[in-house]
Amino acid sequence: MQRLYDFLRRHPTGVDSFWALVVLGITLVSVSGPGTSDEGTHLLALIIPFAVLLSVVIALRQRMPERMLLLAVAIGVGQLALDVSTMPSDFAFLVIVYTVAATGARWASRTALAVGLCAAPFAQLRWADDELGIGSNIAITVFQAVPFALAWVLGDSIRTRRAYFAQLEERAARLEKEREAQAKVAVAAERARIARELHDVVAHNVSVMVVQADGAAYVLDAAPDQAKKALETISSTGRQALAEMRRLLGVLRTGEHQEAGEYVPQPDVQQIEDLVEHCRTSGLPVDFKVEGTPRQLPSGVELTAYRIVQEALTNTRKHGGPNAGASVRLVYFDDGLGLLIEDDGKGAPHELYEEGGFDGQGHGLIGMRERIGMVGGTLDAGPRPGGGFRISALLPLKPAH
């Protein structure tokens, strides 16, 4: 049954042609019969062409509704002019009025309504029953006009309903595309966030491990105690890096319920002092000062501040030279947190802080700008007068809109 229904929906003209033949057959049966007089034969010769044309109107109503409306109007005028009275095939007038109201152009829909309402009065005037009074003729006219009005109203309501559903489908498709776009943006943002975290963790800890490994290899024979201390620093730094890596990877494991405390918490401002001490242990002199009244800050601001200091000290270790020193200043304002990280080394190359590195892969300062942009802060990074490098940042306490 479903296959038959689908077949009929795919071939609407065939279905209409079937019903057109049915109406034509009913008309021929109703106007013909045994014992037809010469006058009846003449009348039948007039009726058959009109009946056939009205059947064509029904058969092609969906393929070309506007043209079929004009053909129906011409047939109706011909019936009035040639005195071809109403017959079953005139049902095609109701069908075309409905079709044009549902699927035709607006001008055709309005024309169909006007012609349909005028058809009944013209027909009643042409074939009026003299035995009936004026009131009865008017009542019959109104009664005959009602089907045309109902056909048009039904067709117009179908048009409105189809337009409504089409609008709903369009809106649903647009919302689906917007959801897909938002999902892609969210995925890209999450990938960028994870990339920043991985860069900060790997760049800082691995640079410490490399410096300590080089120092241990240099003093291994001459100062075994210093080499042992360097190896211990490498071990602790590696464990810290693994812990942070495990936390980041845990974010990616959706659907798994992790035990509380398995991953270390996000770094905050309080851990900057530990970070500075770790850098001192690895051989980088760092002067650390806090100005203002320390207080609890939003978690996003705390993590951003920690990562900025971490990346700045990592860059000092990588680009400042063997004798570079650094200073870190944290300033608590009423409406934000200020950061100032300076070093007296040889400074970073211009390509690093302006163009993303010599090979376009320098993501440290890019990550800083992205982090600060997420919290609505400002960043100023560049060479320091007199040598070295300076990074100045202001992190507002209110989130960016």
TrEMBL record:
Catalyzed reactions per annotation: ATP + protein L-histidine = ADP + protein N-phospho-L-histidine
Coiled-coil segments on the chain, per record: 158-192
The keyword Ion transport belongs to this UniProt entry's keyword annotation: no
Pfam families, per database record: DUF7134, HATPase_c, HisKA_3
Keywords: ATP-binding, Coiled coil, Kinase, Membrane, Nucleotide-binding, Phosphoprotein, Transferase, Transmembrane, Transmembrane helix, Two-component regulatory system
PANTHER family: NITRATE/NITRITE SENSOR PROTEIN NARX-RELATED, NITRATE_NITRITE SENSOR PROTEIN NARQ
The name this protein goes by in its record: histidine kinase
Organism: Streptomyces parvulus
